[in-house]
Design goal:
With about 600 residues, this protein is α+β, with helices and mostly antiparallel strands. The protein is about 20% helix and about 40% strand.
């Protein structure tokens, strides 16, 4: 269980997560200057075994506060122990010392420290000192940056809007900075060991790795503060919301995914029909193993017809597809769709290993699929589209997968990362030049591990939070951000099972109840209320015929004091809900979703 302790010393403060041995936020006064500092051991598949923290000791003195602990991270490929000492001084200095030793031979893609800058630095000037003594002065990127932002870093600094300078110095390795918004994280990350170096790194038993981060927080004179500002727009979350909080956007269509080898039984099908999904995603791999390429398209589409009459066809393409084969395959799929009584709404072309299809593959598919609309997509993260942008005019839409657990897995990080989807959708809409954008699939865990070293990436085990109110709150928050940023559609994971929306008996999980609350309301427009706070409380507002439905996602115990009056009830989770003349006051007991139906 996560326990957050606030460490204060003079004007500086830091939040310590005792479960992870990490600093969550670091700041001065009311301002957050860094979003976190932590150590990680990542294996050859970029998996991150959670560390076990022991020997935790906090010491306070007139000069400051010190936290020391031991940690052990163990998995199939890693067996690492480390000691950490964190010191926060009244002078505004903070240090994070890390000394790790391999208990046995270990294979790691990364071992060491990571520093997170908050998304509020986007558009603000950054100053990076490099290991060769040179200096780069440039803004942190406003748009989600596809590549490394700063390379060969030994120190990096920025000045916030209040005039506080934050300087971070690194020793023990070469560091570089990436834009973690590519994976929906709300941060820029400066990490050890540049990605250009070969991975994995093999550590001998007994081998040591030592690193240190020093943070200096200094308040500057007013004139220095003004000079540090740049004219580029600052993409804070309130700035992203401006597009939709005043004027609602069209409600994104909601679908679910049909597992390739299974069709839903009668009970889940009955619930799916009640939920009124806008579409169902069907995945097909275009392989040449017979005249038509697949043997079960008829049964796939018949099963899909029991969920929705519209299909999103995700077609996994080889690197060099044969046009004639694609034409035969699509003819077969269209015929089967007609017999099943479903419409193929779009073909989403995906490449291999989570990457978008090659330009040649897209050209071949568009020729074969005409007149069906062909979207370029990836079942990997937005970063794959961002790094391999398709040419304008070569697609009818863009689609990318998203999940909140690429880099962090605790409740608080996952809840916050729902807001990170807004940046990906915003930039995909800009990239598409007016063509529609879909998040497909949107899942609590990655749908596949494309970084697995074998040739057949597999889906990770289901997250147990999928079946409890936390997932419902996360989905409502993520959907609100997708709507506010202009998404055309959001497709969830499987309908049935431990990673799905309901169980085998057709009993919906809390996330399924949240989906049904959106789809059955029949809303035509949606917005995210501007009073929402990422990671704490988010409000999705649906509009139809002069009526509104509010879905308020709460992640932590607390109060939402400005919800409107109306007919209210908990649809997942629970707590105290008090209705007054001015609206509802909510005190949640853990994550949950509260629904209010009222006049617009």
């Amino acid at each position: 269980m996560t326990e957050i302790t606030r460490l204060e010393c003079g004007a500086g403060w830091a939040e310590f997560d005792s479960a992870r041995g990490a600093l969550r936020r670091i700041g001065v006064g009311e301002e957050e200057m860094l979003h976190g500092i932590y150590a990680a051991a990542r294996d050859a598949s970029w998996g991150t075994p959670e560390p076990t923290i022991t020997g935790l000791k906090t010491t306070r003195s007139e000069d400051g506060v010190t936290v020391a602990f031991d940690a052990h991270s163990r998995g199939d490929e890693v067996d690492i122990s480390w000691q950490t000492v964190i010191t926060l001084r009244r002078s505004g200095l903070l240090s994070y010392d890390f000394a790790a030793q391999a208990r046995s031979a270990s294979s790691v893609n990364r071992l060491g420290l990571c520093v997170l800058h908050p998304v509020s630095v986007a558009g603000r000037m950054g100053r990076a000192e490099h290991v060769d003594g040179s200096v780069t002065v440039t803004p942190f990127p406003d748009r989600v940056h596809p590549d490394v932002v700063f390379t060969d870093v030994r120190a990096i600094e920025h000045v916030d809007a209040t005039g506080v300078r934050c300087r971070v110095a690194f020793t023990g390795d070469v560091f570089e900075t990436e834009d973690q918004r590519n994976w929906t994280d709300l941060s820029f990350k400066t990490y050890c060991t540049p990605l250009r170096l070969p991975t994995p790194r093999l550590l001998r038993a007994g081998e040591w790795v030592r690193q240190r981060v020093d943070v200096e927080l200094t308040r500057l004179p007013v004139e220095s503060t003004t000079a540090s500002r740049v004219t580029a727009s600052v993409s804070t979350l309130p700035g992203l919301q401006d597009r939709a909080t005043g004027t609602a956007t069209t409600r994104p269509r909601i679908g679910c995914t049909l597992e390739p080898d299974t069709g839903p039984s009668d009970e889940p099908t009955a619930w799916a029909q009640q939920a009124m999904f806008d579409h169902v995603r069907v995945e097909v791999t275009a392989v040449i193993d017979n005249a038509d390429g697949i043997t079960n398209s008829g049964s796939l589409l018949t099963s899909a017809s029991r969920v929705s009459d519209r299909v999103e066809l995700a077609l996994n393409l080889p690197a060099a597809p044969d046009t004639e084969h694609l034409a035969r395959l699509l003819t077969r799929l269209i015929q089967d769709a007609n017999r099943a009584g479903v419409l193929i709404e779009r073909v989403v072309a995906c490449g291999s290993s989570g990457r978008p299809p090659t330009p040649d593959a897209t050209v071949a598919l568009r020729k074969a699929a005409a007149p069906l609309p062909v979207w370029v997509g990836t079942d990997g993260n937005f970063t794959e589209l961002n790094r391999q942008r398709p040419a304008i005019g070569s697609f009818d839409g863009l689609a990318f997968a998203a999940n909140p657990q690429v880099h962090a897995f605790d409740d608080r990080s996952v809840a916050e990362n729902a807001a990170g989807l807004a940046f990906c959708v915003r930039d995909a809409c800009a990239m598409s030049d007016g063509m529609p954008v879909a998040v497909s699939p949107l899942t609590l865990l990655p749908s596949v591990n494309a970084d697995a070293p074998d040739a057949n990436p597999v889906a990770p085990p289901a997250d147990p939070r999928q079946r409890v109110p936390f997932a419902a709150a996360w989905f409502v928050a993520a959907y609100a951000h997708a709507a506010a940023s202009g998404a055309h559609a959001v497709t969830l994971g499987p309908l049935v099972g431990p990673a799905g929306l309901c169980n085998d008996a057709g009993r919906p999980y809390p996330i399924g109840l949240a989906v049904r609350a959106i789809t059955r309301f029949g809303a035509v427009r949606a917005r995210r209320d501007e009073r929402s706070v990422p990671g704490w409380a988010e409000a999705l507002v649906l509009e139809r015929d002069g009526r509104e439905r509010w879905l308020i996602a709460l992640f932590e115990d607390g109060r939402w004091l400005s919800a409107p009056p109306g007919e209210g009830r908990w649809i997942s989770g629970g707590g105290n809900a008090t209705e007054t003349e001015s609206g509802w006051a909510l005190a949640a007991e853990g994550p949950g979703v509260f629904q209010i139906d009222c006049e617009a």
